Amino acid sequence: MKCYICAEEGKSTDAVAMCIVCGMGLCMDHAIRHETELWTGGYPFPAEKIEETLPRILCKYCAMALKKGKPKGD
Amino acid sequence: MASVMKRSLAELIGTFILVFFGTGAAIITLMISKGQTPPNSFNIGIGALGGLGDWLAIGLAFGLAITACIYAFGKISGCHINPAVTLALWAVKKFPSRDVAPYILAQVIGATLASFTLAFILGMGAVNTGGLGATAPFAGIGYVQAILAEAIGTFILMLAIMGVAVDREAPPGFAGLIIGLTVAGVITTLGNITGASINPARTFGPYLGDLLLGGSNLWIYFPIYLIGPIAGAIMAAFLYNYLSEETG
User: How many domains does chain B have?
Assistant: First the structure.
């Protein structure tokens, strides 16, 4: 699979990952690694953020959409 | 995790909301039915107008306030808003010892503030007619019987908490609704037996308010609302652990 964004720019680069949202092939330069926070607990225990995060690979379009779609303050 | 200060504040506010709306509904029911002639000594006014429906309404006021608090504060403090629940979770090693005292103190302060706020808003009628929603055994209900009734009521509440929230297999998102409705159901039945406290803090606030504002002194009954709920909740927590271990 080739990187879609490189292809848009007229280049041909092998993809190293896929966007988890849209499935776009991405090279190392265009893959965005997003760390999702993980929480444990919740009623009837206080919730606690754990050290580990869940990585998600996103393309620049989905990363932007995710950022815009987040509630205010996040 | 939020600091113990923030978590205790969440417990204080949660217990305030619980007592304000719950005992507020009981006080207002008594104020509305003032002047009615109760048909017998087992009827103190709650039930004079709507029978068991009066108790269901009071139960729902408590239950829906609890539901709102669980969804609002559940992730912050765990939203116990009940010393019996805090002690039962501690007893089965699900809650740290160092947090027990600040939680219970916050719950008691929240309940007391709610009782004084109700007296301030509704006036002395809330104390003289409504008794600030204080609980006491009804006519013909003895001390031991009242402790047993409170223990059974808190037992089913704690069993629901264990099954719908503590258990890792519990479906997420339902705890607030189910636990609120469980409390409403318990109050509908136990209301006209013991007043259906199932929460020592919920009884402490009105008792202290009544004492300091010139209402009835009911402290002789306080052990009922201390022993019954705590014993019932602890038994439920241990029983649930035992039964769930058996089923794997």
Answer: 1
- Say what the pTM is: 0.87
- Does residue A22 belong to any structural domain of this protein? yes
Q: Which of A43, A48, A49 sits opposite B79 (nearest CB)?
A: A43
How many domains in chain A?
1
Assess if residue A74 is contained within a domain. no
Q: Which whole number is the average pLDDT over B45-68?
A: 92
Q: Which domain holds residue B75?
A: 4-246
What pLDDT is recorded for position B24?
A: 97
- Taking only the tens place, the pLDDT of each residue in A1-57 is 999 999 999 999 999 999 999 999 999 999 999 998 898 888 899 998 898 999 999
Residue in chain B nearest A42 by alpha carbon:
B75
> What does the alpha-carbon distance between residue B37 and residue A49 come to, in Å, rounded to a whole number?
57
Tell me the CA end-to-end span of chain B in Å, nearest whole number: 30
Residue A21 belongs to domain spanning: 4-69
B85 to chain A: closest CA residue: A44
The complex scores an ipTM of 0.78
Beta-carbon contacts of residue B187 (< 8 Å; ≥ 6 apart): B55, B58, B59, B62, B63, B196, B198
